[in-house]
Write a structure and sequence with these properties.
By secondary structure, the protein is an alpha/beta fold. It has 14 helices and 11 strands. Strands 1, 2, 3, 4, 10 and 11 form a 6-stranded mixed β-sheet that branches. A 5-stranded mixed β-sheet has the order 7-6-8-5-9. The longest helix is centred in the C-terminal third of the chain and has 55 residues.
Length: 461
């Protein structure tokens, strides 16, 4: 008769497992003085804790990939995201960059739980009407100045001067479009018959301005390329709005900042601009979902310090990143980073090693500290229960001896002997671990001692 080799291997493995389990069970029973049921319960508890540790250890590992929503190809957001990718790659973390139409789309993606994205650049002031309760800020990373170019020789210093004009205010859904509408509304300029607000991208808007098809264009610092800005600044008849009311705007709108484009900053030789130009600018925040791993939060902020910490035309060295709180709550991990920097492990060990040690400390240590006392309690409870069972029969023996003191006739002797037989049978049927063998045999000896006394008392009577 042929045998199935696979079945034979399975049976052999099963026998080995059962043999190993029995040895472990016997060892625990003999060492800790526990019965079979208590030992199996302890082993099940250990197995469940081991599974829990493995699950938490795997789950607590920081992801190796971060998804960032940035901007379109020519935007500053997209170029900066590329710098983040290089910094994170040094620590073995891949940054996947997703293009977008700008801040508003970034915010909408982050707010949508079904969209796979972890972090993104968002212009301050866009949160109204958006669901942001699951989002946190890692801090502001830069200023995003608003540039308004217009055609004409007459200086424009007030937005109200654009009433009745054709204005290109950026693509629909962009941060430029959102901010432009908000500022124009504050100056009682609404889209209508007299004033036309046109949604178009930067290149198209700049070309229409040069061709005289629109009177002014709104650009944000992140979306318009530096080449386009220089082209417009050098173009005769095209000027840049000087926000003389910049201080008032920053007082009325909390997320706006006042910036100054110094005289000659663009071109010293041609003294361009030929006067200081006041600008207003919202800040750009690094927004993340609130379940971002703390280790990745530290990595992103470390990259932000390296990328955004340099001096530029509109900011000093080390001015960014900064925990400025507007619509979004600064995350607890970011707050800790700004106060004390990276945690100890990530400061002195490579990222992968620090992550491993941190997970061991966070997952293994607390559970082990709970498990060890728990495993000590189980034998203690079992031993206490066994002692109570032994003491129970001692109480029965003591009660029986008390009954022997009184006058005893034949019927009472038979009654006490019957009770003693029941006690002896119950004691003999007891199952106790080897560690209680001494007390068990002493109890049996005492049963015999009481029986001898009972028989002796009956003889003397």
């Amino acid at each position: 008769m042929k045998t199935d080799p696979q079945k034979g291997i399975a049976d052999a493995s099963k026998n080995i497992f059962q043999s190993g389990f029995t040895k472990i069970q016997t060892s625990i029973m003999e060492t800790m003085g526990m019965g079979k049921t208590a030992t199996i319960s302890a082993l099940i508890l250990i197995a469940l804790v081991a599974v829990l540790i493995i699950f938490l250890f795997i789950r607590s590992a920081p992801p190796k990939t971060i998804i960032m929503t940035s901007g379109d190809d020519d935007s500053m957001f997209y170029k900066i995201a590329g710098k983040y990718a290089k910094v994170l790659a040094r620590n073995g973390v891949k940054l996947k960059i997703i293009k977008s139409e700008g801040s508003l789309e970034n915010l909408q993606r982050l707010s949508n739980p079904s969209y796979r994205v972890d972090v993104g650049f968002v212009q301050a002031g866009l949160a109204k009407g958006q669901k942001i309760d699951k989002l946190v800020s890692l801090g502001s990373v830069a200023y995003e100045p608003l540039f308004i170019f217009y055609r004409g020789t007459r200086p424009v210093e007030l937005l109200s001067q654009f009433k009745g004009k054709k204005l290109a205010i950026g693509p629909e859904g962009s941060g430029t479009n959102y901010l432009a509408k908000a500022l124009l509304s504050m100056n009682e300029i609404e889209p209508g018959v007299s004033t036309k607000l046109l949604a178009m991208d930067d290149e198209e808007a700049a070309q229409d301005l040069l061709n005289g098809k629109v009177d002014a264009v709104f650009f944000m610092g992140d979306s318009a390329s530096s080449q386009l800005m220089r082209k417009l600044l050098h173009e005769p008849g095209i000027q840049l709005v000087n926000f003389t009311q910049a201080d008032a705007y920053t007082r009325r709108v909390g997320y706006l900042n006042k910036l100054v484009l110094p005289q000659g900053a663009i071109d010293f030789g041609e003294n361009m601009p030929d006067h200081d130009v006041h600008l207003i600018a919202p800040s750009v925040e690094l927004i993340a979902r609130n379940d971002l791993h703390p280790a990745l939060s530290d990595l992103l902020l470390e990259a932000a310090k390296e990328i955004h910490g340099r001096a530029t035309m509109f900011q000093g060295r080390g001015e960014f990143p900064v925990p400025l709180e507007h619509e979004f709550h600064i995350s607890d991990d970011a707050s800790r980073f700004y106060k004390s920097g990276k945690s100890f492990l990530y400061r002195y060990f490579p990222f992968w090693m620090a992550s491993l040690i941190n997970r061991i400390l966070v997952v293994f240590l607390p559970i082990v500290l709970i498990l060890i006392p728990g495993l000590r309690v189980i034998p203690a409870i079992y031993q206490w229960g066994t002692k109570m069972r032994i003491y129970r029969w001692y109480r029965q023996l003591l009660a029986l001896e008390q009954d022997m003191i009184d006058r005893m006739d034949t019927s009472k002797q038979k009654e006490l002997l019957a009770r003693l037989d029941q006690i002896e049978q119950a004691v003999n049927n007891m199952k106790v671990p080897a560690s209680f063998a001494n007390q068990f045999y002493v109890l049996r000896g005492h049963v015999d001692f009481v029986r001898a006394r009972l028989l002796e008392r009956a003889t003397t009577k």
